[in-house]
Amino acid sequence: MATLKEIQARIRKLAEKADAVIKKQEESQKAIRNIKEMMRAYGISVDDLHRQGRGDSGRGRSIGKESPAARYRDPISGTEWSGRGRPPKWIAEASDRTPFLVEEPSSSGASSRTRATRKKAKKTPPVVEARKIPPKKTPVPRKPDPAPPGRNPSNKPKQDMPRS
């Protein structure tokens, strides 16, 4: 059974932990108040934070995000394909996909190029230091093991002599 001194020591340790938790909660509440004041001062809402965070990170799908716009349309059936994923049968067999392109509506009429004909900026791969690859070692030919006594050294079966 625990002695009185041991119990009092436990109580002190628990009281210290409780004080630390309370202090941390007070600090976080103060930080939240400061953040809310700054958000009011700059006119930022919680929705703005969610939209900004999801859009820049590239991870996950934000709520209300629309599917990608169609880049190709089948002239016969009218079905559309965004250009992502596995191509449908009606365009997979086509060697030239330009007849299936969908024109983008131009707001100012400045450009009539389609989305598919625009060139995307290619990311250049990072420069990696070339490392030296050691030359391949050629295998050294091995000498055949000497045949044990009573065996044919050439490992060929002995041919019987024709009987006369």
UniProtKB/TrEMBL annotation:
It is found in: Cytoplasm, Nucleoid. Residues 47-59 have a biased composition (Basic and acidic residues). Residues 70-94 form the DNA-binding protein H-NS-like C-terminal domain. The keyword Cytoplasm applies. Keywords: Cytoplasm, DNA-binding. Residues 46-164 are annotated as: Disordered. Belongs to the histone-like protein H-NS family. PANTHER family: DNA-BINDING PROTEIN STPA, PTHR38097. This is DNA-binding protein H-NS-like C-terminal domain-containing protein. It comes from Paraburkholderia rhynchosiae. The lineage of its organism: Bacteria, Pseudomonadati, Pseudomonadota, Betaproteobacteria, Burkholderiales.
